[in-house]
Amino acid sequence: MSRKVNDGLTRSQRYYRRHKAKRHAWMNAYKKRNRELFNSYNSLYWERHPEAKVLARIRTRCGKKERYELIECRITQAEIKQLWDRDNAGSMIQPCIHRKNSANHYTFNNCEFMEYAYHQALHLIEYNKGKGRFNERKWKREICNA
To answer: Closest Cα to residue 116, out of 133, 141, 136, 98?
Structure first.
């Protein structure tokens, strides 16, 4: 005599849930055996889709609640692709996404791509201005003319 379960799931759905751990163990073992294949696929994907890599990093950054508590990711991969093309980030040495207003969220209108070195210099200026240690003449001589 079979027991009738009234949980709203089909027989195949119940089987799928029951054997979930076995499936995950099999997939992890498969990935370990074929690690080089997975790594080459991932690196090839990131190379061909830099906007996906940027979006993944933004989402990781927004997930860190202690530092970015009120900042949300309100930008899509298609919008990042538009930003990438608009700012010509493909020709940059090391492109970096920058929020124009750091208090606002990651949105299409609030973001732009710039060189990483320039981005770091901007944040260094903000930090030093807040501490009262910023010398604009020296900065222009060392950073802008270099």
So the answer is: 98
* SS3 assignment, position 98: strand
The pLDDT, as a whole number, for residue 48 is 92
Tokens standing for residue 46: 């990131």
Structure tokens at 15: 């089987």
Please report which confidence band the pLDDT of residue 89 belongs to, taking 50, 70 and 90 as the band edges. Answer: very high
Buried/exposed 96-118: b ≥16 CB within 10 Å, e otherwise: bbbeeeeeebbeeebbebbeeee
113 closest CA partner among 140, 90, 146, 143: 90
pTM of the entire structure?
A: 0.63
Contact criterion met (CB below 8 Å) for 125 and 134: yes
Per-residue exposure over 59-68, b if at least 16 CB sit within 10 Å of its own CB, e if not? eeebeeeeeb
